[in-house]
Amino acid sequence: MLDRGLALFGIGLVFGGGFGFLAAAGMGVTLDGHDHATGHGGAGHEATHAQPVEAVAGQAPSVALTADADPVSGWNVRVETANFRFAPEHAGQGDVPGEGHVHLTLNGEKVARVYSEWVHLDRGAPGDTLRAALYTNDHHPLTKGGQPVEASVTLGR
Could you give the CA distance from residue 96 to residue 134 in angstroms, rounded to a whole number? Predict the structure, then answer.
């Protein structure tokens, strides 16, 4: 009896799910996720995420960056902040002053989104430039006095 019930349950899931997807498709529902081309009110993804947010006066965060060669491979990177809290639990949500994440770029190319003080970077060579910039929960760069809140280091120095 249990085997028959399990088989009927499986059949119900397959057909029910299949009919559910067909009904959704018939109503124009898609499973595309976040459309970076149009998902920001018609503005492009990079243009929207490039709109800076000025830090609250008197509470402006700061960031410091160090990178030490890992004995096995890559770099051990430390991102120290003041007046700023890493908030992975609020990623993609509205801006909360003093919290967010860091974008790490290597020679101008984004290589990581960071939500803690330490991160291992598996790429980069001595002489490359690593930059850490503070971003809001909703992915806007933080600025202080109109300038990005960021720090950089030359790897291997």
Answer: 13
How far apart CA 73 and CA 129 sit, in angstroms, is 17
User: Of 77, 81, 154, 152, nearest to 120 (Cα)?
Assistant: 77
C-beta of residue 145 within 8 angstroms of C-beta of residue 59:
no
Closest CA to 130 of 103, 149, 104, 156: 104
Digit-coded pLDDT (tens) for 31-89: 333 344 444 444 444 555 679 999 988 889 999 999 999 999 999 999 999 999 999 99
Task: Look at residue 128 and give its three-state secondary structure.
Answer: coil
User: Domains in the chain, please, with CATH?
Assistant: 2-46 (no CATH), 53-154 (2.60.40)
What does the alpha-carbon distance between residue 83 and residue 52 come to, in Å, rounded to a whole number?
Answer: 18
In terms of residues, how long is the chain?
Answer: 157
Count of helix runs (H) and strand runs (E) in the chain: 2, 11
User: Residue type for 142, please?
Assistant: L
pTM attached to this predicted model: 0.70
4-46 pLDDT, tens digit per residue, is 765 665 566 555 655 544 444 444 433 333 344 444 444 444 5
The token pair at 50 is: 């490039």
